[in-house]
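User: Run a structure prediction on this.
Assistant: Running it now.
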Amino acid sequence: MLAALIGQDVAAIDTPALVIDLDAMERNVTRMATFARKHQVRLRPHAKMHKSAALARLQMQAGAVGVCVQKTSEAEALAAGGVSDIYISNEVIAPAKLRHVATLAHALNAVGGRLAIAVDSLEGIERLAEAMAESVRSNGTGEGGNGGHGNAPAGSGPAAPGAHDAPASLIDVFIEIDVGQGRCGVSPGEAAATLAQAITAQGALRFAGLQAYHGRAQHLRSIEQRREAIAHAASEVRRTHALIEAAGMPVDLVTGAGTGTFALEAASGIWGELQAGSYLFMDADYAQNARDPAQPAFEHALFVKTQVMSVSASHAVCDAGHKCHAIDSGLPRVHALAGQPALVYANGGDEHGILHPASSKDTLPAGSANALPALGDTVWLIPGHCDPTINLHEHLIGVRGGLERGTVEHVIRVDARGALR
């Protein structure tokens, strides 16, 4: 049992395993929470990254107002783990899934919690309203309360759980606008205003604001590229915001942003909530971005512990292949501890990773040029993309005191592993 690892030295962790450097992670949590407070924006981290109720609660204890997820089943898993303020920042169309959404909204409202969801079509709004109405009938709840915008003044953001007298079936609804991602989202402007009118016409739905997330901008490598992308997004958001408010519908909140650009959204004066998620662990892909000095410096905190299982004259082989780390954003980077040779990870298939000496001798520790690890040595990898890597594991092993001499302090369950619907 993994629980037996608690209190043991990091060397006791079998390989391959997904390990959190708790000290680095907690510094990341503090830096992001401090940034949000300083800039007077709400923080709603994306829990689709870590899929863990325990880590979501940790972020909320540090000041986050709640979390985002992308899937209905992710929301259910985190709610079952005690997370009470959840935003499904994605469209849900299937009637069966919407019944789950409505049931969860009813359950969270009953305990003073909150569920929100994104829409980008009239049909999506109608299907959601139908599911909410069915939930009201099934639960025997009436349409009491104000059923509108609650007590939240315009511009204040959605009310905190329990802060307005809303019907038990109320759900917050954000209109997603496409600000450059080229994925989901209605066109900015009049099309979004039409959807806002449709939402306000439904008694159990509360128009909560705009979802404006520019995913493609997160991984633009230069600061200038990211700045240009978010400036365009901000222009579209302002235009849409003005049109909807001119039609008499307050836009309480604009939510979005990611780890690559959140300082830009915070500085815009239009986004009131940040959805950055990867800052918690920082993967190898994000490390390739030129760092914006307006953002805090985040540390790598998620690692794959692996062991060398074979050595030849030209390379070594470790026991961490593609079944334990995602490669959609590139292969993992080898994290060399003090005195270890600098290595490069190459594709070895499902169960193996090929380790070569770093190509430049200038990057190698003194006295270890072209060195390879020995049979049985531990090698630490930084995953290319943390989100899908975590989805491959049932547990995260939290280590206190560093990767070299640390002690296992926590075994954290990945509650929403495989939550794909």
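The two ends are 29 Å apart (CA to CA).
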